[in-house]
Records
---
Amino acid sequence: MSNHPIVILTALDLEYQAIQKRLVDLELHRHHHGTRFEVGRLARGRCRVALAHVGTGNQSAAVLTERAIAEFTPAGLLFVGVAGALHSHIALGDVVVATRVYAYQGGTSEDDGLKSRPRSWETSHAADQLARHIGRTDAWARGLPSPAPEVHFGPIAAGEVVLNSKVSGHARWIRQNYNDACAIEMEGAGVAQAGHLNGAMPVVVIRGISDRADGTKEVTDRAQWQRRAVANAAAFATALAEEIAAENKDGGWLTTRGSAVRGQQVTYNIARDNSRVGIQAGNVHGGIRLGFDPNQPTDLAGALAGFRAQLQRARATGRLDEDTYAAAEAELTVANEALQANTQQSKGKLTLALKKLRGLISDVADLAAALATVIALAQSLS
């Protein structure tokens, strides 16, 4: 069983319960700020799952997604719940898997009206491929009432308002600016943003359709469509969790990523147990010194300053987008402050900040190589 669980987050109690009843050997895991996780495994397999309830809204979802990632270093993160359908071909009880999440309420108010300023996050190619593979089979729906619900892949709109009208200004705004969205909900944007800032880990939003966002929500809720829809979403999500866990056997999903470096293929590795990675490279020219002499001082502060300069150059040349750069700068600041504090507790903060930084810049080969040196220096101080 992998050391990296799959984190599953929900917003409503009935969503939490739908996942919880699929888990066995549950143990309580308390975060030091009070968040309660239940950690167990899926009853039909060996996949470990850390489950938490985050409440409604994108802000709380973003904060607790970040907290879950820092706490568990998961192999994948799934957000599971209900949503309203935005197109008539999507039936009650169907499952929608987000290929993109829109934060649809951003805009600018001008004299001639409100103009959209959308933000969006795409689901990673690897996670999308896994989800589509599962969706092409009926195995995930085993145990659900017949006929099996359909699985739809498409964008999801996430805001802070429950939409229950087809004629309101809110509904017109979504049709005008986000008419490709399949469903609407209230947490996906926060989850997607937190996932984006934490690197290559797969983050997938999975929604069961419980209403049509058309004024009939009270009727469909009374008919128990929320409970039916979330049961379907939970079935698909747990099948996807098993698949991600299988892909991540021995940490493979997290630690093996190819990057083009002068025509070569580079593999990034994480040392296990008491071992330590000294250097990672393709072709190396010149001398190499592995290990650290305790009598030889190391300049971690200088290495961090040099990495910051490389980070700024990557931003200036467009190889690093603004959001990733800002998140990387924030982690670099935390690392510098922890280094200056020079306490046992600050060493843990330093290590965590560098790990988060590694996730953010892992797709930029020269930054990843430079950061490997920084991390090696930091490990030599412990």
Note: Residues 6-253 form a domain with the Rossmann fold fold (CATH 3.40.50.1580).
---
Amino acid sequence: MVDRYQRFAATGFGGFVTKRLGLPRPPHLYRHSPENPRSPGPVLLATTEDATVTGALHAILAEGGTPVHTCTSPDPTPDEPQEPGSLILDATGITETTQLCTLHRLLGPRVRSLRAGGRVLVVGTPATDCRTLGAAVAQRSLEGFTRALAKELRMGATVNLIYVPAQAPTTAASTVRFLVSDRSAYVSGQTLHLSETTQSTNTEPPTPPIAEVAPLADTVAVVTGAARGIGATIAETAARDGAQVLCIDVPHAGAHLADTATRVGGQALELDITEDDAPQRIVAAARHHFGRLDVMVHNAGITRDKTLARMSAQQWDAVLSVNLLAAQRITERLVDPTDPVLGPGGRVVCTSSISGIAGNAGQTNYSTSKAGLIGLVTALAPTAAERGATVNAIAPGFIETPMTEAMPLLVREAGRRMNSLRQGGTPQDVAEAVCYLADPGTGGVNGQVLRVCGQSLIGA
């Protein structure tokens, strides 16, 4: 979809007008391009004397060939990169509230030097690793800091926070790479809590990713709602990253579904996921075509918008059946102890919504279903961890799709501008986040909800 206001604001005259009138000025977002990828570096890694994961962060970045400069001084030095692509602060050494001044001292003098579309990543200590009250208070303060800083930066820069266990910092590898790359262009102001990768004692450990350029190589991904829109983009991105893909959608979308499957070199399954035998048919199709199922992406969803007083029972039931109950039944089949489908390294990714976090007028059914998916993720995370698998959700904000294009003009413009990046996201932004969570290397992220919303002001 075309954002005409953004195009206008990007012109010389449009920039002058919007600045004089105090109107939003959407920045250009640098999104990942396989043909011409941008390096996340040079990286300026700021750290304190007692920080615990600096060495691991340096190794993670250097492994991909990214130049890293480590600094400990509040004052920039002549040998620092003049225009870093990423600023990373290892804040794990902050163990008292009086040390929070480190945030200002180390990042304050440097954020203006960040290149356009740059990344700021703050790394903290999980609450479970905090040994004192002061440490717990200080580390929780990092969330307010990152959210506020994300609203201050311009030129498409983003800020995010991850809490990394000191005993297992390597679980952060795929997360660090994602958040400092252009794959995370529409992810800002977010917090992820990482944990140790939990593996079942009765199974072999998960296979690590083959390579950063093909993190889903040798995996089988199933994507529902794959005929068009976001689902088709997820299927294409998963295939780009090396996965074999089983594309699923309703029979009346069969022609579009076949087109998607052909583009990604995968298989198509025409199926109404609300049917009683849908879970069994999905498992059977994945095993028939590929021998197994590694990644389950619950993307299928519908809307039937009305205020509660005007909503029919059929409209309520349809949305709950497709968006929530089908995903619940399919996932229960995948983790059935009598015939488990997901093994070590297995991934379940649910497409929730910020409507499931903040609610939305006229969408009580939709918001209920999307909040239920978050409940599914939270409830099943321990079960998934027992077998070395993960279950997570993404929560998109305003995404440019035919559905949002059909919105009334003022509603559409409000949705686009009410976030820190002053624009809507794209289906590719959603797909990149899904594939990050599907990555075999993202075993330290479990039971999490990642908002892909440009730091939407709704539900913030």
Note: The first strand starts at residue 43 and ends at 47.
---
Amino acid sequence: MFSPLRNAAYRHLFIAQVAALLGTGMATVALGLLAHELAGAGAGEVLGVALAIKMIAYVSVAPFASALAAQLPRKTLLVSLDAVRAAVAAFLPFVNEAWQVYGLMTVLFVASAAFTPAFQAMIPDLLDDEGEYTKALSLSRLASDLESVASPVLAAVLLSVISYHSLFVGTAFGFILSAGFVVTAILPRFSVAQTLPFLRRLTGGVRLFVLTPRLRGLLAVSLATAAGGAMVFVNTVVLVQSNFGLSQQATAWALAAFGGGSMTAAVLLPKTLERATDRSTMVAGALLMTTVLIAGALFARSYPMLIVLWIIMGFGYSLTITPAGRALRRSSTAEERPALFAAQFALSHACWLIAYPVAGLVSAEADPQAAFVVLAALCGFGTLLALAVWPAHDPQNLLHHHDELDPDHEHLNEGTRPDPAGVAHVHPVVIDDNHRRWPKQRRCAP
């Protein structure tokens, strides 16, 4: 799993990613505490608006950033975006109004929305081998899971000796460290995959989502994921500090419990996925998150119970997001993969754009228990939609016909086999020039 780190350029970029993630994680904890200081029990509303701004930036900026990345100097782009993010983090300790939070976070999130797809789009050029690229994607997921555990724990330890304002200094340092490792990485020249026409780079990923059944199911699961995650990220500070009257450290430890559950699932998943399909694993995670939200409305009346619920929620959360990269790889060619990952980044965050305001506004206007109920309904809807649009029979190799092609077309030479209904062949299918629509599935595929 760690063999991609032998590639010096990827190793530097991976360390840059980890540094930025740790900084972002501490900022997430500090932002929640800042919101509570500014708005008290209404912190959920402040957080909900701030995180909605994040989602708007991610949804609107990410596709364009990914499409434009091929035309810009990569290293200069990434370092500049890290510098902008570090500057914003350095200013955050000095805000005293909610609108100031919104303004600074807008700048930060726009920079992040441009950084992440540009970062992801260059990884295939660093690792030509498909197996190494797959491992690199797994490492990125592991880094994100570790961040969800390490950042709250680190924040909880630091909060015992410093104020939460100083956590933003750690965030700025993380971005500066990220920029330093990007500077030292030797990046390759642009590949053919990055010189596709601009419009295709911009819209190709969304087209794959529209036409590929498993990707439509993945998007439905993303809605369920956002519903459960939004309850944790928006309302933990309200539950812990306003409802239970506990400290800032207790908030950080509750978030760490969620991260611990996620990390546990991430460690167990490789073996699980040898026996279970991506669909069954992700739907099981969504069902688990729905169950936790329902239970939260009834039983989240004490800090120990919240910790238990958040551990289980984190477990379900990881089940829904970790296999996503596998589904994306199965659904794209190497040339279309950067556009598909950018589309996944934007569309999944569109789901968070729905969930974050719901979590914050319902909690502020009613109470966190009401937010549990509403988000349980949203999570359950995403789960049922995934079951409806993602076929249970989703084989790696699909037996299908090409009635629109001449019998001697060269594409039909790939895995051709006789079939009573005509010429058919079996191979992994993606939407491309030979498969403009998803073929009908046949149960006789091997």
Note: The chain has one domain: 3-389.
